[in-house]
Amino acid sequence: MVLRRQIESALYTSVRCGETLGLSGLTSSIGTVGDAYDNALAETTIGLYKTEAVREDSPFRIGPLTRLGDVEYLTSRWVHWYNTSRLMHRLGRIPPVEAEQNYYTQHVPTLVEAHQ
């Protein structure tokens, strides 16, 4: 016998929730019941942000976070680092911006020739 809360499988996929969204002109962003991949990317990125940027010993922090501006500044510094400077293992331990430059260096001449 398996015991579980009744609300687990229907919390966000209930008919009433869908109807309420529809009446408000909104559509749901969730998949089928039991689909575990709906929020995986967002949860992973939020986890990285909390671990790398928000914690007290983070190199992106400059003092305590007391104002919204402190969080915005911290976030902009982290996002800039994340998109341009972090070393990515699957890219050969180079930053994403360098991988993008390499890609366009190799492929743009081919694309230009194809359109002539």
- Class of secondary structure makeup: mainly alpha
Report the principal-axis shape.
Answer: flat
Helix and strand sequence: HHHH
Query: Which residues sit in consecutive blocks of at least 5 with pLDDT less than 50?
Result: 7-11
Radius of gyration: 22 Å
Number of domains: 2
- Tell me the major beta sheet: none
Mean pLDDT figure: 79
Beta strands, count: 0
Beta-strand share of residues: under 5%
How many helical elements? 4
Q: Percent range for helical residues?
A: 40-55%
Domain Integrase catalytic: 25-96
InterPro entries: Integrase_cat-core, RNaseH-like_sf
Protein name: Integrase-like protein
Pfam family, one: rve_3
What does this structure look like?
The chain is mostly helical. It folds into two domains: 1-36, no CATH class; 37-114, no CATH class. The chain has four helices and no strands. It has helices spanning 15-23, 40-54, 68-84, 96-114. α2 packs across α3 (68-84). It is flat and about 55 Å long. It starts with 14 loop residues before the first helix and ends with a helix. The relative contact order is 0.06.
Which short descriptors sum up this protein?
mainly alpha, 0% strand, flat, 2 domains, 116 residues, 4 helices
Task: Write a brief structural summary.
Pfam families: rve_3. The protein has four helices and no strands.
